[in-house]
Amino acid sequence: MHYPKARLKLMTLAVASACAGAIPAVAQEATRAADEPQSVVVTGLRQSLQSSMNLKRNSDGIVDGIVAEDIGKFPDTNLAESLQRISGVSIDRSIGEGSKITVRGVGPDFNLVLLNGRQMPTSNLGDLNGRAYDFANLASEAIAQLQVYKTGRADSPTGGIGATVNVMTARPFERPGLHASIGAKGVYDSTNGNLPGDIKAKRSTTPEISGIYSNTTADGKFGVALTGSYQERNLGYNTAAVSSGWRGPFRGDENNWGTIPQPGAKGAENITNRPGATDLYSVPQNLNYNFNGVQRQRTNAQLTLQFKPVDTLVTTLDYTYSENKIQTKRNDVSAWFNFGESASSWTKGPVSSPLMYKEFVSNSDIAMGAADFATRTQNKSLGFNAVWKPTNTLRLELDTHHSTAQSGADSPFGSSNTLGSASFSRGNTTVDFSHDFPVLSIEGADFTKYGQQVTGSVFTNQLMKGIVDQTQVKGQWKVLEASELKFGANATKVSNRSAFSNQQRDTWGGATKPSDYPSSVWHQESVRQYFDKIDGSGNPNLFNQFYTFNFAQVRQLAATASGLPALYLPKTTFDNDSRTEEKSNSGYVQFNTDWDTKFPIRTAIGLRYETTDVVSTALVPAATAITWVSQNEFPITFGEPTFTTLTGKYHNLLPSFDSDIELTRDQKLRFSMGETIGRPRWDQIQGGTTLNSLARAYGGTGSAGNPALKPVKSKNLDLSYEWYYGQQNFFSLGYFRKNLENYAGQSMVNATPFNLHTPVGGKYWNAALANGCVMTDTTCVRNYIFRNFAGQPGVVRGADDAITGNATGVITGQPGDPVANFQITSFANQKAASLNGLEVNLQHMFGNSGFGISTNYTYVHSGLKYNNASIGEQFALVGLSNSANVVGIYEDKKFNVRLAYNWRGEFLSSTFDGSGPNPQYVEPYGQVDLSVGYALSEKLSFQFEGINLTNSITRTHSRTQQQLEGVTQQGARYMVGVRYKF
Fold it and tell me: Which keywords appear in this protein's UniProt record, sorted alphabetically (predicted)?
């Protein structure tokens, strides 16, 4: 066998130059073989499709991507929404935009995001301890290309099991000469108009402006690129939810707190189609309608300087900055169930769900809360890169960067908050779960007689900060004419800090009096109009009246009336503070060879070795007591926090093998196998045991980390057939399999941390039961204790409620009372899973007609699914779902049009909800988007975009569809823009 000169195809300029920084390749210097036909030059959208296709065709392993058709003009306004067009990629949405990605059924925490080949830090207060990158922080204007590596690569930083996504920005040397453009858009978000007045932004139309400047000197030695963008968006969304989760599951023959009455017991006659003795069922903890107004301002900028002192050396210095500021205002109305006397009707087993659930109560609370908070996320990255080619056969590269991501409060009221108010006039309360929308009905509400008053409050301060310091050294050596050796070393230090504190006033039974507030602060609203797109909202039994209020105004009134103003602001220090550091050192080698056989073969064999040290220090508050302040509120009292430090260490040897066989000039077979790792979430490896601040009658909850956790390891197999039957046309069919081990199983263990005593079951409690109270009637129990044991140890009686006459005060657990039981969530490497799937891609342009289609479908399967008919902790793969895209395309010299439909099937999003080990499923979701561009001239163009034109809703449920977790109505948004090229 001999080794002729490799026949490496030349990509389009955009792809070849963009790949230069992250995947240095001999292809940059190669020329198209003489016997290959010269390509026809295309521009615009077709150019983008062709470039993306060539990226897939000419890469080692399974790679997909999206390439900008022109500098400063990316196909979508959001990077996540662009990524969802790629087969196997699904997105999670936040405030109506794509934010996180799931790839081939592997969730967001196990997909690694790089910026120009560099590992990026993460920070997201919505997921305080996760590793998932939030694409909502990056605007698309400065992005030249997205590369999605679906198979392992020896030269890539570790952490991506589903995929490694490389976000590549524009470089001046990639497109010599002067390139500049400026664009402006007006964004109209229809969702802002469907909100109560107290939380609605003043305007629904907001501006976006962006610009890019790139230039090189005549001699090609200097280059500069500057990009910037500023975007505002005002939006809203409305959600109906069982926001604290489902209590249970219970077996039909159980009899304890939260269960429905057994046959023969009081209230059993009120049950229709009772769950069988072996059936599982759950009961709702509460029902909440919440209305959310959001304003967002996003700023992005990047400066890139390039210098080529000699032809063999190119240096690049770049700085990237992004800021995402979000202000949220919320109003809600809710009813909390205390599992007293009830009536209910049920679906058939083996998992029964309530079609109707009703509790018989009087003078309970109709809770109406508000929130007003703001957050800010900043990302900064300073990097330096040098590429040196001392000979025609050797290429050396040095890359180093310091990058930070920080999220925190941007409001004097904290990063999140809740100010509760209530009218204590709630009578019998019913929820109808028979449709998509849960219908809450309340009897006896009287807001005139039982006026609104502020009850409890929570002010939270959160901080998350990530830092990455990374240095990479890479080399590429042409050993023979058809072979090359790649090698390199990598030193990375990743630091994560997550901290929070709660200023919580657990006076949910009433902190002030109705007379403390003028009636003008409460603004009457109706519920139905904000859920008109959801089936069931037209039910005439809906409790349709509630009150909104201005958070800042009522907060000040409550602070004055209580005489405790400090309790109505967030703390300035953190009660919980976890700081974790990972130091990794790695080295790799990869050998690529072209084989001159009947069917030309290219192989790449790689090996990467990596060691990681973990140190986690956590500040954890010490719990000192449990107090009983209202019917089912048992807040924990905390003392001074203390630091604990734990460590861990692991190493991995990760092989990889890629091969492609050229069956014909237009057809390829690919085979890849290798091992990749995904690191544990930060909360899984942080030290210390943390208790949640509010317990219930049945006990409390908490969490504990394990810094000795190993990463999840995946053994991967990929097979793919690709047919490139036209300049922009291709078809591909791929199979993949992943065998996953070392998953951190999340389990709940019963424990008694800090040996806290609870009043439930204690001396005073038992005396109340012995004198006629029943366990479920906590109002009776509290009245008896206050009226018979006031002044005794642990019993502090307050004034009787002026309206209900019930006693108020605080009861504290005493020595001799039972020790409270806590369900502590912890983690261990104890789970394994496998998944496999198919990907089908078709991209076809219909000759010179201008019409085309791009479509794909991904099927993912795993035998490890959640068993809805099982009680207790389970391990199941989250994020696993089928997905599909269909994009219709038209382009001529003046117009370019894309009509896109994106669909994602049902998937498991979590194995725990607010009450315990209950699954949460996101139901199937489809969305239609439209983009229309018109070029008035070569320099001036206009754009129209419509997002979610079908006003799709999102819905989640637990073990059955009737066990609603939440249903959200959003809406469409529209953009009209203009762009001018200089």
Answer: Cell outer membrane, Membrane, Receptor, Signal, TonB box
Q: Which residues contact 254 (CB under 8 A, 6 or more apart)?
A: none
Counting the structural domains of the chain, the total is: 2
Q: Identify whether residues 454 and 488 lie together within a single domain.
A: yes
The whole domain housing 797 covers 763-812
Q: Among 85-94, 199-208, 335-344, 443-452, whose mean pLDDT is lowest? A: 85-94
Distance CA 289, CA 126 (A): 20
Q: Are 148 and 162 in contact (CB under 8 A)?
A: no
The single-letter DSSP state of residue 699 is: B
Does residue 518 share a domain with residue 398?
Answer: yes
Q: Are residues 575 and 674 in the same domain?
A: yes
Q: What is the DSSP string of 367-419?
A: EEEEEEEEEEEEEEEEEEEEEEEEETTEEEEEEEEEEEEEEEE-STT-SEEEE
The answer to whether 896 and 942 have CB atoms below 8 angstroms apart is no
In a domain, 3, yes or no: no
User: Among candidates 156, 112, 139, 129, which has minimal Cα distance to 24?
Assistant: 156
Integer Cα distance of 800 and 586 in angstroms:
68
Paired sense of beta strands 271-272 and 342-346, if any: parallel
Let me know: does 413 contact 555? Beta carbons within 8 Å. yes
Q: Are strands 164-169 and 112-115 parallel, antiparallel or unpaired?
A: parallel
746/775 same-domain check: no
Q: For residue 91, count CB atoms less than 10 angstroms from its CB and return exposed for 0-12, middle for 13-18, buried for 19 or more.
A: buried
| Contact present, 124 and 134 (Cβ < 8 Å) | yes
Strand order across the 246-251 sheet = 246-251, 280-284, 351-352
From residue 822, alpha-carbon distances to 238, 619, 700, 748, 756 in Å are 33, 20, 5, 9, 10
Q: List beta partners, residue 973.
A: 189, 947
**Pair of tokens at residue 104:** 């081939």
- Return the pLDDT at 71: 59
Find how far residue 798's CA is from the centre of its chain: 44
DSSP character for 450?
S
616 neighbors 579 (Cβ within 8 angstroms): yes
Question: CA 480 to CA 787: how far, in whole Å?
Answer: 93
Asked if 372 and 412 count as a contact pair (C-beta separation under 8 A), the reply is no
- How far apart CA 771 and CA 789 sit, in angstroms, is 14
Indicate the DSSP class of residue 571: -
DSSP H/E element including 11: none
| Tokens of residue 297, six digits | 């301002």
Instruction: Tell me, yes or no, whether 802 and 862 share the same domain.
Output: no
The answer as to whether 8 is a domain residue is no
Token match 């490497």: residue? 829
At residue 527, what is the residue type?
A: V
pTM score, whole prediction:
0.84
Cβ partners under 8 Å of residue 298, min gap 6 = 136, 137, 139, 229, 230, 231, 232, 233, 322, 323, 324, 325
Mean pLDDT of 220-237: 95
332 and 368 in contact (C-beta within 8 Å)?
A: yes
Position 770 in a domain: yes
Q: 443 in a domain, yes or no?
A: yes
